[in-house]
Write a structure and sequence with these properties.
alpha+beta, 3 helices, 26% strand
């Protein structure tokens, strides 16, 4: 078990099986020293969206529940990274996260929702997890999910 996976275990996090794509794309691409991971939904360990993670923040979902969903997306990003790399210790750093939040038209507090993913990445990888990011509000996301997050990692 890698140091990173051991640390995740200490945090009480077990990586799920990496989710299969739901359309015509690949889950990840490695080019040179960059690993790009396609957007991950807030799927639970059972590979399904929980009912509380379907809908819009500011309408039927609270920001706190949406932040939990963003945390699940980050866990799923790490599961995809493990599937692509075989060993999470190959991650030099998380370069960027891109967050898409399914929001009601008047919901503006996107940053705290995205912090669910950012905080998890830093907790999991330490300083290697500090990253640049973008966070945007969306009218809809696949399967009605409240959050989808993509990532870019530098790897060795």
């Amino acid at each position: 078990m890698s140091r990173t996976e051991s640390h995740l275990k200490d945090l009480g996090i077990e990586l799920p099986q990496a989710a299969a794509p739901i359309a015509n794309y690949v889950p990840s691409v490695i080019t040179g020293s960059i690993l790009v991971i396609s957007g991950q939904l807030c799927l639970g360990a059972d590979g399904k969206l929980a009912p509380q993670h379907i809908g819009k923040v500011g309408a039927d979902i609270t920001p706190e529940v949406a932040a939990e969903a963003a945390r699940l997306c980050a866990i799923n990003l790490l599961a995809q990274a493990k599937a692509a790399l075989g060993d999470l210790d190959r991650i030099v750093r998380c370069v960027r996260l891109g967050g898409f939040i399914n929001v009601a038209p008047d919901f503006l507090a996107l940053a705290p929702v995205m912090n669910g993913a950012s905080d998890l990445m830093v907790a999991a990888l330490g300083d290697r997890g500090r990253h640049a990011r973008s966070t945007v509000g969306m009218a809809q996301l696949p399967l009605g999910a409240v959050v989808e997050i993509e990532a870019m990692f530098e790897v060795r």
